Automatic annotation (TrEMBL):
This is Bifunctional acetate--CoA ligase family protein/GNAT family N-acetyltransferase. SMART domains: CoA_binding (SM00881). It holds the Pfam family Succ_CoA_lig. Keywords: ATP-binding, Ligase, Nucleotide-binding, Tricarboxylic acid cycle. Residues 742-898 form the N-acetyltransferase domain. The keyword Ligase applies. One of its GO terms (molecular function) is ligase activity. It comes from the Bacteria. InterPro entries: Acyl-CoA_Synth/Transferase, Acyl_CoA_acyltransferase, ATP_grasp_subdomain_1, CoA-bd, GNAT_dom, Ligase_CoA_dom, NAD(P)-bd_dom_sf, Succ_CoA_lig_flav_dom. It comes from Bradyrhizobium quebecense.
Length: 923
């Protein structure tokens, strides 16, 4: 249900506590005390049939007896009573409930199922059960049993653990940080992580979101919400249970490498979330983000009175990927003027152990003017000659003074005071200077924010197009898979693997199957005639790793040796695996590529996130080396390059000594192809290419295994991908009234230059009618919002001139959190009006909206835009002038009305997927 009803739940006007108690240390009394102590201005009622009054509050026997209908009900009653309480709450019209009690059980027939069904039937939102509660300081709401009242601030905290939420409140109180909201979600019977990410992403009072996560239930919903939130504000996650699952036993190396936590890490990365690994790191990130600090880059200057500590800080900075700021000549000269001889004249700026407050401030003023530095870490070690408290006060005042002159300067200063006492900490708190107990803590916190900024940039980076270099033959690939499944087989045979890889343009060594030794000699003859040695490998769908059973013999150059090898590998396999069915052997020509690097590429199936792409160092010791990285499909070239860069083997792809480099994008492009296969053919459950050889000539798969299955999700008509892929089925053509046609396809991230060019060909007046204001410049960020779509929430169709490929129009929609109503927008090249172009695009959008199950299509139109209003009238939209702004008309189309049926007919002339040349995917 996403954000539906959450505003009334998290900012209620009235609250009722059901299960209040006068018993000391009881849950009910703790919640009541917090509700009263937080200063809640609305009415508070207490429901308990066993007491006449609790803590001075007159009680009511049940919710139906209350003189008002509460927006929020906090429930601390025993589990057995909760279904009845929810039924009463739904009957009187309560907006939502937070269930703090535990013990409702799980699954079919449980109390939890009964409660959830009742609430869902009445549109009532539930938080919990088994949670700490809800705290929204701005709304003076504390419906929790937390020990302390959180302060008001701009951090939102979503936690699957009540204990973690309580710890965050305690820590924040010490650091004088506040929260826009704290929600402990417990068992997520209704409101889940994704719902709250949507809510706080749109909350004007929240600047950053902190998330403690243990497990994701709905991967696609989570990914969609997380990606949307991370584009708007910092999203920091710490995940519990990292070590609860080790590498599983799997039929392929890929499956073994794709451990549960590694997949979560890939999901967080894809969403643009910043992952930290413990509460201390979460606290440090919150220390900076709670104050709205994000550095412009990764260059750090260090100012210290202790050279050794400065060197340690530099070491840690470089180790974590940061860059010691290089002091400019002007900065060094300025420091020479204010510092005594003997200062370090380099970064770290060591101003000696006798440095007093004046020396610190003089040096800090200079460093803050250096354009080569993105932040300054000020460090101090207490000495007998300079009072540390006075230095802290001077540094804090320096930051205050500069903040009044340059609003962003305060974001550049961090502090680490060795052995700081409460007074020093309070000094920095009052000046809003982030401070840390050690240089390691400070540098780590700085680098986490650098990573956040890099992730933010990556989220909106425009990927290069590969449409002209890669055209998958999906129909041919699907026929291979269909044949295997129709025969009741799970594993593709070698010839089928070659056909599948050829369909996706993944080079693979020729492979032929042979029944026995004589057949093997015959099948090897053509390769031997070319002067090539061959490899003989056992062929059994029951044996995952051939080398484990001695099932591989290499370097064979005669028919006799081939026959002997075939007999040998079959004999070894029978002895090692008497239970295995042997289909024979396979013959492959030996590929001699002296400088080739051995890589592994594959697709693994994660029970939560579905298909996962794995890349790393290949070979027989792949699990031992464990040099791998994971990513969620689909991929574009930027994402694929990032995947490669996160491995150690990526360094070997560059040239070294007399070894030529692997062409820059040949490996990333292969990963894009593999990810496209995962998106196009969901029956591919597991795939392993090991090794994939890579050298200056390109890539070549030497060995591969592919398992196919119809998973329960596929049988139920559900997708396996956590990130919705590019919807290629919506590619085609539209016929206009004058008989001409335009090419139609969904927008892709790499379309940014095309969209920018299109905007330049639209008149200023048409742009004003579309955007409600004069538009002269279109930034990368602005266009990225239009082209980098989450197809689970939004769609935009580009209309292209079939002769030139230029964009001539676009229509888009973006749905609400319930996926019921979508807002539309349309823009045409100005000289193409009057040909039924806009009409055709709107029909297409209506057709798409109905296919997605949306109920309404709405938009805002300027009252002067009579052309658009007339078209909306003809299409069946209702029109109402906006009461607060008479210049705007709100138009709404009810997609459930039968009058739309004719408009919703399939007007798209669809093109074959294999001919489209479209392989790009959503980010």
């Amino acid at each position: 249900m996403s954000t539906f009803g959450l505003e009334r739940v998290l900012s209620p006007r009235t609250v009722a506590l059901v299960g209040g108690s006068s018993r000391p240390s009881s849950l009910g009394l703790a919640v009541l005390m917090n509700l009263k102590a937080c200063g809640f201005s609305g009415r508070i009622a207490v429901v308990n049939p066993n007491y006449a009054a609790i803590d001075g509050e007159i009680t009511s026997p049940d919710l139906k007896s209350l003189p008002f209908v509460p927006d929020l009900v906090a429930i601390t009653a025993p589990a057995a009573a909760i279904p009845g309480i929810i039924s009463d709450a739904a009957a009187v019209g309560v907006a939502g409930a937070v269930i703090l009690s535990a013990g409702l059980g799980h699954g079919a027939g449980s109390l939890a199922e009964t409660v959830a069904l009742t609430a869902r039937m009445h549109g009532m939102r539930l938080i919990g059960p088994n949670c700490l509660g809800v705290m929204v300081p701005r709304a003076k709401l504390n419906a929790s049993f937390a020990a302390h009242q959180p302060a008001e601030g701009r951090l939102a905290l979503i936690s699957q653990s009540g204990a973690v939420a309580a710890a965050m409140i305690e820590w924040a109180a010490e650091r004088r940080l506040g929260f826009s909201g704290i929600v402990s979600i417990g068992d997520q019977l209704d409101v889940d992580v994704a719902d709250l990410l949507d809510y706080f992403a749109q909350d004007d009072h929240t600047t950053a979101i902190l998330l403690y996560l243990e497990a994701v239930k709905d991967a696609r919903k989570f990914m969609s919400a997380a990606r949307a939130a991370a584009r708007l504000k910092p999203l920091i996650v710490v995940k519990g249970g990292r070590m609860s699952q080790g590498a599983k036993a799997a039929a392929t190396h890929t499956g073994a490498l794709a451990g549960s936590d590694a997949v979560y890490d890939a999901a967080f990365r894809r969403a643009g979330m910043l992952r930290v690994y413990d509460l201390r790191e979460l606290f440090d990130c919150a220390e900076l983000l709670g104050r709205g600090f994000v550095p412009h880059g990764n260059r750090l200057s260090i100012l210290t009175n202790g050279g050794g500590l400065g060197i340690l800080a530099i070491d840690r900075l470089v180790e974590l990927g940061g860059v010691p700021a290089s002091l400019s000549a002007e900065t060094i000269a300025a420091l020479d003027r204010v510092l005594p001889q003997g200062w370090s004249r380099a970064n770290p700026v060591d101003i000696s152990g006798d440095a007093d407050a004046a020396r610190y401030v003089s040096a800090l003023d200079v460093l803050l003017e250096d354009a080569n530095s993105d932040a300054v870490l000020v460090m101090n070690v207490e000495t007998a000659v300079a009072p540390t408290e006075g230095i802290a006060e001077a540094v804090a005042q320096c930051v205050r003074d500069r903040r009044t002159r340059k609003s962003d300067v305060a974001a550049l200063v961090l502090a680490s005071w060795d052995g700081a006492d409460e007074r020093t900490a309070a000094t920095f708190e009052a000046a809003r200077v982030p401070h840390f107990p050690t240089e390691d803590d400070a540098v780590r916190a700085f680098m986490y924010l650098v990573r956040y900024r890099e992730a933010s940039v990556a989220l909106t980076a425009t990927p290069p197009s590969i449409a002209s270099t890669f055209t998958p033959k999906t129909a041919a690939a699907r026929s291979v898979i269909a044949k295997t499944l129709s025969e009741g087989r799970e594993w593709l045979d070698p010839a089928e693997i070659v056909a599948l890889f050829e369909a996706y343009d993944i080079p693979i060594v020729p492979t032929v199957a042979a029944r026995d030794a004589d057949d093997a000699a015959d099948k090897a003859a053509p390769f031997l005639a070319q002067g090539l040695a061959v490899a003989v490998k056992v062929f059994s769908r029951d044996i995952s790793h051939k080398s484990d059973v001695g099932g591989v013999i290499l370097g064979l150059r005669t028919r006799e040796r081939v026959a002997e090898a075939a007999r040998a590998v079959l004999s070894r396999a029978r002895n090692a695996r008497p239970d295995a069915v042997l289909q024979g052997v396979t013959i492959q020509p030996m590929i001699e590529r002296r400088a080739a690097r051995e890589l592994i590429l594959g697709i693994a199936d994660d029970p939560t996130f579905g298909p996962v792409i794995v890349f790393g160092r290949g070979g027989t010791a792949v699990e031992v080396i464990n040099d791998k990285a994971l990513a969620l499909p689909p991929l574009d070239m930027n994402l694929a390059r990032d995947l490669v860069s996160r491995t150690r083997v990526s360094r070997l792809l560059a040239a070294y000594r007399d070894v030529p480099a692997v062409p820059a994008d040949v490996v990333p492009l292969t990963l894009v192809k593999l990810a496209q296969m995962a998106a196009d053919i969901p029956e591919v459950a597991e795939l392993d290419i090991n090794p994939l050889l890579a050298d200056e000539a390109g890539v070549l798969a030497l060995d591969a295994r592919v398992a196919v299955r119809r998973s329960p999700r596929l049988l139920a008509g559900q997708t396996r991908l956590a990130v919705r892929p590019y919807p290629s089925q919506w590619e085609g053509e539209l016929a206009l009234r004058d008989g001409s046609r335009v090419v139609i396809r969904p927008l892709r991230p790499e379309d940014e230059p095309m969209v920018e060019s299109f905007f330049r060909r639209v008149t200023a007046e048409d742009l004003r009618l579309r955007f409600f204001q004069a538009m002269k410049n279109f930034s990368h960020t602005f266009i990225a919002r239009l082209t980098q779509l989450d197809y689970a929430r939004a769609m935009a169709f580009a209309a292209l001139d079939p002769s030139t490929g230029a964009m001539v129009g676009a229509v888009q929609l973006h749905s609400d959190s319930l996926y019921e109503n979508a807002e539309y927008a349309i823009l045409l090249q100005s000289d193409l009006k009057g040909r039924g172009f806009g009409w055709a695009l709107m029909q297409l959008l209506i057709q798409y909206a109905r296919s997605e199950g949306l109920k309404r299509l709405s938009g805002e139109v300027l009252a002067e835009n009579t052309t658009m209003l007339n078209m909306c009238h003809e299409l069946g939209f209702t029109a109402v002038t906006e009461p607060t702004d008479r210049r705007i008309v709100n138009v709404v189309l009810d997609l459930s009305l039968s009058a739309v049926d004719a408009l919703g007919a399939d007007i798209l002339i669809r093109r074959s997927r294999d001919q489209s040349g479209v392989t790009e995917t959503t980010r």
